[in-house]
Every structure is written in C-alpha cells, then in structure tokens.
Write a structure and sequence with these properties.
This protein is of the alpha/beta class. The chain contains 13 helices and eleven strands. Strands 1, 2, 3, 4, 5, 6, 7, 8, 9, 10 and 11 form an eleven-stranded mixed β-sheet that branches.
C-alpha cells in the first residue's frame, strides 16, 4: 500500500457545534484525497458528536475511546498514522483553503526542519474573525542560542495544535505524550521539535482558532476546580519540558530563556488566584522588565516603577484584574507612544493585525 504524503489527526470532545466545520475544512483542501489520511479521535463525547462523525466514516477513520484528555487522544492516533508528516487539528478550529499545500511546500523547501506552523485568524465563538496573528515574515524558530530561544518563545503560538505539522521521526523520538496533559498536549511536541530540527512558521493565516466558553485553556474561569487544573498543567509543563530538553542536549541558559515568560505568566496567574503575595507580584513585574528590556528610556522606566508600586498597594487579585483591563483596552498603544521601549527580541517579529472587511 502506498503511503499518503500527510496524515491528519483531529481530536474532539463534545464539540457538536463545531466539529462538522472542522471536518469539511480538511476534506475541502486542494491536496488529492489519495495523498492524505484523516484520523478523528472522539475522546468519549457525550453530546451529538458521535452521530455527526458517523456521517463522515467513508472519508476518514474514526477512533472512539473513553474520555482521557488530549494527550490520550494523540497517543491513540499517532501510532495509527502512516505518513512521514503528521498535521493536527482541534475539533473546534478549522483550516483555511490551501493550508495543506502550503505546509507540504514548506517541508519540501526545508528538508531538515522538524515542524511547520503558520499564522492564524482569531475567532470569538461564532463571530467573524476580527484579528490575525502572523509573523512579520516567514521565519525559522529553533534553540540554537539564547537569542533564538527568545524569538522561539514569542513565536510558539504559531505552532499550536491546529497550526502544527511535524515529522514522524520527531514524534518517534519524543515518545508518548504524558497522560497528565488533558489539554496542552501539543506543547511537548512543538517544544521538542524546536530542539530537534527547528520549525518554519509561514507568514500567512492558514487556520481559524476559535475561542469560546468551553475552551479548555483559558485562565479567566469562574470554576475554581478548572482553574486549579489549569495551574497544575502549567506547573507540570514547567517541570517536564526543561528536563526533557536537557536530555536532548539543550543548555540550561537556552532552556531558561525559552521558559522565562512562562514562569512570569504562571506567577501572575497564581497571584490572581491568591497564591502569591504583593511583594512577589511586584518582583515578578520587575523581573520581566529586567529580562526583556534592552533600551528603555526614562518614560518606560517610570511606567514600570509605577506598575511595581501598584502591585504593592493593591491586592494581587485586583492587580491582575487591572492588567487584564489594560490588555483588553489595548492601552499599550498609548504607552508605546508616550514611553517607547525596545525589546529583545523585537515584539514586531510577531504581529496582531486587523482582518480586512469586505466592502
């Protein structure tokens, strides 16, 4: 039997609202059906997802299993694939036309690379996409140096599940994904790919990333149990990933550079949920400033000093609410005008852009 050029893994759990669009977006790709195989893992859905999938059984292989989370879904599907390149899609996202063709072209043009990712459109539930997140140009991400690791840190989101395609040889070297990763199971794959050949991220938005109330990884959640699970996942990854990268020969300095922003983010989330005191929050803000700033003028230094003082004055939870408000209102655009700062690497390497509206 001739192997397909690419295997596609779609993971889904209780996504009856979204799964049909995801499946159609794969079937409508312009690569010949004979050159691809599609494997859908239904991770124990209890809604109408199984009935919807049944209508597609002639076009793809369906694996049904008890609910165990994203890592268990990946571990069930990956050994069943036959191609040398494997692409992933979450059941609540969908691909843009031409996505597979561009991915395969990129692998062909860069035979030594471990993975390929790309830009994406951000979609809030069922609303039209308002923003896209793309690199300023097609870039190679790797862990060749501390500076390269910091660039890779900024660009990792372009390798998330529905943007990720990786070589089978990389997955074989990684081995099974830890079952503790009920979500974020893509994170070990994309992280280790950076160490095992690097990744190309294409400067085109080739998928639609949907954010909705049942998205598993959003820390703005009123359910304390879900919040604790998400914080536990962040902590697990910050233990597991550095240890495995060290096994792959990545130096401690490069590992620290890659995960510095993750540690800052975890500290902020722990503060928001009452697990850190005011002094720790202020230290986190100053640590980020020192780590990522290379040529801050007096205006930006004053801004960061004000942020640190605010962290000491208000409660950690209230401070995080203020940071979220600042981010939602995009007040950074005013700060950049009044207090510009150069970062290393430049934030402009990866850009949020509005989606043009049809006339």
């Amino acid at each position: 039997m001739v192997k397909p050029f690419i295997s596609i893994i779609i993971d889904t759990y209780n996504q009856e609202r979204f799964i049909e669009r995801a499946l159609h977006s794969v079937l409508e790709q312009d690569s010949p059906p004979a050159d691809r195989e599609i494997i859908v893992v239904d991770d124990g859905s209890t809604d109408h997802t199984p009935e919807i999938l049944k209508r597609f059984e002639g076009h793809m292989r369906i694996i049904r299993k008890p609910n165990g989370g994203q890592a268990s879904a990946f571990n069930a599907a990956i050994p069943k694939t036959r191609a040398d390149i494997i692409a992933f899609l979450d059941g609540d996202d969908w691909w843009a036309p031409g996505k597979l063709r561009r991915v395969l072209e990129t692998f062909a043009a860069n035979p030594g690379v471990a993975a390929v990712g790309h830009g994406f459109y951000e979609v809030l539930d069922d609303a039209p996409p308002a923003e896209m997140f793309v690199p300023d140009m097609t870039r190679c991400l790797n862990l060749a140096s501390v500076e390269a690791a910091r660039v890779a840190d900024l660009g990792r989101t372009l390798l998330g599940t529905s943007r990720l395609a990786v070589k089978r040889s990389v997955l074989e070297r990684i081995g099974p994904i830890p079952s503790a990763l009920v979500f974020c199971a893509d994170t070990p794959i994309l992280t280790f790919a950076l160490a095992l050949g690097g990744a190309i991220v294409v400067d085109e938005p080739l998928c639609y990333y949907r954010i909705h109330d049942s998205s598993l990884f959003t820390l703005r959640d009123a359910n304390p149990e879900r919040v604790r699970a998400k914080l536990a996942t962040q902590r697990f990854l910050l233990d597991y990933l550095p240890a495995r990268l060290a096994e792959f020969g990545v130096s401690p300095e490069i590992i620290d550079a890659l995960f510095e922003s993750d540690r800052v983010e975890l500290a902020r989330h722990e503060a928001a949920f009452g697990e850190r005191g005011r002094l720790e929050v202020a230290r986190t803000e100053l640590r980020e400033f020192r780590k990522f700033s290379t040529s801050a003028g007096p205006g930006y230094s004053a801004f960061r000093a004000f942020a640190a003082v605010a962290a000491l004055v208000v409660s950690p939870g209230r401070y995080q609410q203020l940071r979220d408000w600042y981010s939602r209102k995009n007040l950074k655009r005013f700060r950049d005008k009044l207090a510009p700062m150069q970062t290393t690497p430049a934030e402009s390497f990866f850009q949020r852009r509005p989606v043009p509206r049809p006339d």
